[in-house]
Amino acid sequence: MKRKQKKIYKIAYSAEEKFKALNLLKISTFEFVAHRYHCTIQTLYRWRRIFDGSLKSLEPKYCAPYTPHPNCHTQEEIKHIKDLIKRNPHIGLNELYGKLRLNYSYSRNPTSLYRFLRKNGWYEEVKKKKIYIPQPYHTPEQIGEKWQLDVKHIPLSCYVGEFKEERRFYQYTVIDEATRERFIYPYEELCPQSTINFLKRAILYFGYKPNIIQTDNGSEFTYTRQTKYDQIHLLDKFCLYYKIKHKLIKPRTPRHNGKVERSHRNDNERFYKWLKFYSYEDLKLQMKAYLERSNNIPISLLKTRDKTKTWLTPKEKRKELLLLDWGVIE
After folding, report:
1. What pairs with residue 175 in β-bridges?
2. Whole-angstrom Cα distance, residue 30 to residue 43?
3. Mean pLDDT, range 91-108, rounded to an integer
4. Alpha carbon distance 259, 174 (integer Å)
5. Tens-digit pLDDT profile for residues 116-160
6. CA gap 210, 183 in Å, rounded
7. Domain boundaries, the chain
8. CA distance 301 to 263
9. Cα(301)–Cα(287) distance, rounded to whole angstroms?
10. In the chain, fewer beta carbons within 10 Å around the N or the C end?
11. Counting beta carbons within 10 angstroms of the beta carbon of residue 140, is it exposed (0 to 12), middle (13 to 18) or buried (19 or more)?
12. Measured in whole angstroms, how far is the alpha carbon of residue 187 from the centre of its chain?
């Protein structure tokens, strides 16, 4: 029997988050918005009730008491603590407590002193950084088993043509995980239609279609919210037609698409750092030459299956797998 997972709710929401949730509620159901923003349906009803059209009505209310606690530090004790810290800026907690107890008859617990200091900013709370432990990842060994697909914004500083402020360029990239061979192509618009056009070009370039295409959750690859009449994204229709599985990575985790993300970093160092183009056609010509160059650069992780030869290029790895798996020699 499966154990039911405990729901995790966010403690505090900003006024902007509440406003976005209420706007999304106009075109979606309460259940969908509650799941999206990790809150209860009753919370959404409460936000809608107090909302009067301004962000100020959604701001968190002041919950602290108006009168101090009867057992809190007195003004005299606070003055003694501040004076000691001012005279001894690097004093430790134990020494400070000892001086207060010896010279000013301080009778409180050392823990109370520490809480007072931390609350007033003398001791900053050090948050322990969660150490990321990478999970084991199965890299395909057969050609065409999985492709990673992503989009890179081409730096506007590389464009030296007319209407610079109005032009935008995007590099679509797909990489075969087994061979690390890539196909790249520039577009002037980031949309599902560009994605479909790019994948058709990629299939023609590689000469085969993949079993799996892995992407992030960008709007050019999938719908990030509930759609009217439950429309199917163009990429999902494309994958259904060609019998390809479309796999989405976890939101905000680009490391799950690490191979294509790393290739984009290499593009910055090898290509865009020196690139200057004056038109879209010029960009396509230069990118075509760079694609041929990048697929012939040796990679330390690429080796033959018998491990007799290392530092293969993606083109060399492709030839080996085509011969071993498909019996094809290019």
Report:
1. 148, 182
2. 10
3. 91
4. 10
5. 998 888 776 667 778 888 888 889 999 999 999 999 999 999 999
6. 13
7. 15-58, 75-119, 146-326
8. 14
9. 25
10. N
11. middle
12. 23
- CATH code for the structural domain at 146-326: 3.30.420.10
Q: For the stretch 194-218, what's the b/e string if a residue is b when 16 or more beta carbons lie within 10 angstroms of its beta carbon?
A: bbeebbeebbeebeeebebbbbbee
Which two tokens mark 317?
A: 């790895």
The yes-or-no verdict on residue 71 having pLDDT over 70 is: yes
Q: Please, which residues have CB within 8 angstroms of residue 186's CB and are 6 or more apart in sequence?
A: 154, 169, 170, 171, 172, 280, 283, 284, 287
Residue 149: closest CA among 206, 227, 232, 231? 206
Reference 19, options 50, 62, 40; nearest CA is 50
In the structure encoding, which two tokens stand for residue 308, read together? 């007799």
Angle of CA points 203, 205, 207, to nearest 5° = 60
Tell me the HSE value of 123 on the side-chain side, using a 13 A CA sphere.
Answer: 12
CA-CA distance, 252 to 110, in Å (whole number)?
Answer: 43
Tell me the C-alpha distance between 324 and 34, whole Å.
Answer: 51
Name the CA radius of gyration of the chain, rounded.
Answer: 30
pLDDT in tens, 6-57: 555 556 788 999 999 999 999 999 999 999 888 999 999 999 999 998 888 9
Q: What is the pLDDT of residue 133?
A: 85
Give the C-alpha separation, 41 to 32, whole Å: 10
Q: Give CA 120 to chain center in angstroms.
A: 34
Contact 207, 176 (CB under 8 A): no
Are 169 and 159 in contact by the 8 Å Cβ rule? The answer is yes
Angle at 17 between CA 11 and CA 18, to 5 degrees: 85
**Does residue 245 contact residue 239 with C-beta atoms inside 8 Å?**
yes
Q: Contact at 8 Å (CB) between 213 and 147? A: yes
Residue type at position 232: I
Residue whose entry in the numeric block shows the structure tokens 């690859």: 221
Cα 14 from Cα 12, distance rounded (Å):
7
Strands 182-187 and 299-303 turn out to be: unpaired
